[in-house]
UniProtKB/TrEMBL annotation:
Keywords: ATP-binding, Kinase, Magnesium, Metal-binding, Nucleotide-binding, Phosphoprotein, Transferase
Chemical reaction(s) catalysed: [phosphate](n) + ATP = [phosphate](n+1) + ADP
PANTHER family given in the database record: POLYPHOSPHATE KINASE
Binding site for Mg(2+): 426, 455
Record-annotated Polyphosphate kinase middle domain positions: 172-355
GO terms for biological process, alphabetical: polyphosphate biosynthetic process
This protein's name: Polyphosphate kinase
Entries under CDD domains matching the protein: PLDc_PaPPK1_C2_like (cd09168)
Organism: Granulicella rosea
Reported function: Catalyzes the reversible transfer of the terminal phosphate of ATP to form a long-chain polyphosphate (polyP).
Chain sites annotated for binding ATP: 91, 519, 615, 643
Pfam families recorded: PP_kinase, PP_kinase_C, PP_kinase_C_1, PP_kinase_N
Domain called Polyphosphate kinase C-terminal: residue spans: 383-547, 554-719
Length: 740
């Protein structure tokens, strides 16, 4: 289907209407003139708004700042704070690998045009310079958090990360034994000279750089020039080495410090002038050429190999490194000075996640939590009978993910199930879902759509695809050029009454039992004919690119979702203008699509009250009089990663509620296969509105409110602290106890 046809498709059940036109972005003089002209026609003057949209990258950096604030928050358990700090480092890695690398790639390709107004009118070089300064400031804040807050607090709690010079004789002997047996056999020291070129440093691999001078004197006793040496720290080993500890203490040493203590043994005949840990980050974007590929699988596999040796886009090195060493490395990797980040502490803070797993002190972590299991009604003999009686809504992790696993396992084992269809975007190693699909293929038709280009999971997805094929599963990779991001499972079953029925699971999260324990997501289990028939139509689209005109009641990207979303927002504006009940509450991970933001601005001006719960990037500018004064944006960052997408439209008093896989971002609306599904059961709609969305809107403990200038502030407390996630955990425990 062509792009023109895709954009023209409308959802038949919704009548889209045009809202007030808004400029996509205005330069300052034009913005002032236009706003002044509008103001003359209204009783309330409108403000001068030069940029209607916040920068995507600036918004992302602010999101990571909110995560860092959780690392700094002393009300969080100590090891959870360490974990939050590690997450900020991992997030920043991906930002550099993808976003910064993308800008550099465009500059290298000769593009340096001024950007849109939401980027401040900067060209790519200017934008990159601004981001580099922001990242440098953020990195400094990360290491202040580690050095000034977390390290002293860990030490006070009896968890010590020691330097080599501070080890006791017993600890040093233990560390040396570990080095001899486990580390030394894995090391390859390299001295850089004409016969030993600089080694190929893998993406994000931790290395040790050394400045060396040969001890042999040259002619006339002259000192020989200094040379570089490099040792790669083994990736297979934990970055923290446990040590024997005094009672009441838990001691570690960083692996790279242990290796650094022994470098003289690796470079005999050389004087070690300086040593420092460093690592480089490479461009990790995949560039696929459809016409050159025998298959999507082979293409992705080839590009994964290239990713490991993509262009270097950042170097991190300890600030103790001498200028000569930094300059030699910078020149070797062909980096500008702004691409070099000096760290006041261990390079690669993401590896501090090891500390969280290695320290067995539950008092320094969140109390353990397991979601409540779903209990069948007394009249239901199995899960299929339960779904026939009513739809089942699950809110993970507060509701156990085992119910979803049970649904797919039942499909595999139940002799009455005829066929199974499944999408897989990311799943976990040794996933019960994966095993169930292989088991099912022994006795029934099984179709799986595997998304090979789920970023940073490509390797594992290729392995799963091949294992599934070997087991007899029909494996497909969706439509080239579109990621398959929808979360769908469809079982066709001949029920005891002889009726052939479809049963479906539709979700907002990946089929991953591991992440389901700490991502918040929604699952719907249903056998409603109109929904399950549409789910089958989506699978036909994915496997045969069957050009369905509509998929009611599902909203499907890139075919019907974008236009249907605009129509739903416009309908609320119509209700508001007519004096009917109007309102929007939308929860998602990101909001960047310009047309959607413009539609929300128009709805606000029409009188619609709008509450947005956006975890990450948000380009909408809320609270601007005459533009978005009825729009409020909040972000909740807490124990669980907020991943659910829930969309509530008041619709004149007849609420429409949708959940699904899509954020309101261009990639989700136009570049992926996504599905939003309606929740029709009145009791489930009430639960989504009051129990789930209502709790996030009340949060004054972990919520931040987006301000018109782009900054976030803590939600004000006009009473006791209220954490939505704590409330939902407690609610789950109460319900489970009541069921017992």
């Amino acid at each position: 289907m062509t792009t023109t046809k895709r954009s023209a498709v409308k959802q038949a059940a919704i009548s889209p209407k045009e809202g007030p036109a808004l400029p996509a972005a205005l330069p300052a003089p034009a913005a002032k003139k236009t706003v002044a002209k509008r103001a003359a026609k209204t009783t309330t003057p409108e403000p001068v708004v030069e940029n209607l949209f916040f920068s995507r990258d600036e918004s992302w950096l602010r999101f990571n700042q909110r995560v860092l604030e959780e690392a700094e928050d002393t009300t969080n358990p100590l090891l959870e704070r360490v974990k939050f700090l590690a997450i900020t480092a991992s997030n920043l890695d991906e930002f550099v690998e993808i976003r910064v690398a993308g800008i550099l790639q465009r500059i290298e390709d000769g593009f340096n045009e001024p950007q849109q107004a939401d980027e401040g009118g900067l060209n790519l070089v200017e934008r990159l310079d601004l981001l580099s300064k922001r990242m440098a400031k953020f990195v400094a804040a990360q290491y202040r958090c580690w050095n000034k807050q977390l390290l002293p607090a860990l030490d006070a709690a009896g968890v010590r990360v020691l330097r080599w010079k501070d080890l006791s004789d017993e600890a040093r002997a233990h560390a040396l034994e570990f080095y001899e047996n486990e580390v030394d056999p894995l090391l390859t020291p390299v001295t850089i000279d004409p016969s030993h070129p600089f080694p190929r440093v893998l993406n994000k691999a931790l290395c040790i750089s050394l400045l060396l001078r040969h001890k042999r004197r040259g002619a006339g006793g002259a000192k020989p020039p200094s040379v570089l040496g490099v040792v790669t720290v083994p990736r297979s080993l934990s970055r923290l080495v446990p040590l024997p500890s005094p009672e009441g203490k838990v001691d570690f040493i960083f692996l790279h410090e242990l290796i650094e203590s022994q470098v003289e043994r690796m470079f005999r005949g050389y004087e070690v002038l300086a040593k420092s840990a460093f690592r480089v980050t490479r461009n990790s974007n995949l560039y696929l050429q459809e016409e050159e590929s025998r298959s999507v699988l082979e293409s992705v596999r080839a590009e994964l190999h290239n990713r490991r040796k993509g262009d270097v886009v950042r170097m991190e090195i300890e600030c103790s490194a001498p200028a000569e060493m930094i300059e030699r490395l910078r020149v070797n990797f062909e980096l500008d000075e702004a691409q070099v980040f000096q760290t006041d502490g261990p390079v690669n803070l993401s590896r501090l996640m090891n500390l969280y797993s290695l320290v067995k002190l539950p008092e320094l972590k969140y109390p353990s939590f397991s979601g409540k299991p779903y209990r069948l009604s007394p009249k239901s003999e199995d899960l299929f009978a339960e779904i026939r009686r009513h739809d089942v809504l699950l809110h993970h992790p507060f509701d156990s993910y085992s119910t979803v696993e049970d649904f797919i396992e039942a499909g595999a084992l139940d002799e009455h199930v005829i066929t199974m269809k499944q999408t897989l975007y990311r799943t976990s190693k040794d996933s019960p879902i994966f095993r169930s699909l292989i088991e099912a293929a022994q006795s029934k038709d099984v179709t799986v759509v595997v998304e090979l280009m789920a970023r940073f999971d490509e390797d594992s997805n290729i392995r799963w695809a091949r294992e599934l094929e070997d087991a007899g599963v029909g494996v497909f990779h969706g439509i080239f050029g579109l990621k398959t991001h929808c979360k769908l499972s469809l079982l066709v079953r001949r029920d005891p009454d002889g009726t052939v029925r479809r049963y479906a699971h539709l979700g907002t999260g990946n089929y991953n039992p591991v992440t389901a324990r700490f991502y918040t997501d929604i699952s719907l289990l249903t056998c409603r004919t109109e929904i399950t028939r549409a789910v089958q139509a989506v699978f036909n689209y994915l496997t045969a690119e069957s050009e369905e005109e509509v998929f009611p009641p599902l909203l499907v990207a890139p075919l019907t979702l974008a236009d249907s979303l605009l129509a739903l927002i416009a309908r609320e504006a119509d209700h508001a203008r007519a004096g009917r009940k109007a309102g929007i509450v939308a929860k998602m991970n990101g909001l960047l699509d310009r047309k959607t933001v413009e539609a929300l601005y128009a709805a606000s001006q029409a009188g619609v009250e709008i509450d947005l719960i956006v975890r990450g990037m948000c380009s909408l500018r809320p609270g601007v009089k005459g533009l978005s004064e009825r729009i409020r944006v909040r972000s909740v960052v807490g124990r669980f990663l907020e991943h659910s997408r829930i969309f509530q439209f008041e619709n004149g008093g007849e609420t429409d509620m949708y959940c699904g896989s899509a954020d309101w971002m261009p990639r989700n609306l136009y570049e992926r296969c996504e599905v939003l599904f309606p929740v029709r059961d009145a009791a489930l709609v009430k639960r989504l509105r009051e129990e789930i969305l209502g709790s996030y809107l009340k949060d004054n403990a972990k919520a931040r409110l987006l301000q018109p200038d782009g900054e976030y502030i803590r939600a004000p407390r006009n009473g006791p602290a209220f954490s939505s996630q704590d409330y939902l955990m407690g609610l789950g425990v109460e319900k489970s106890s009541a069921a017992d």
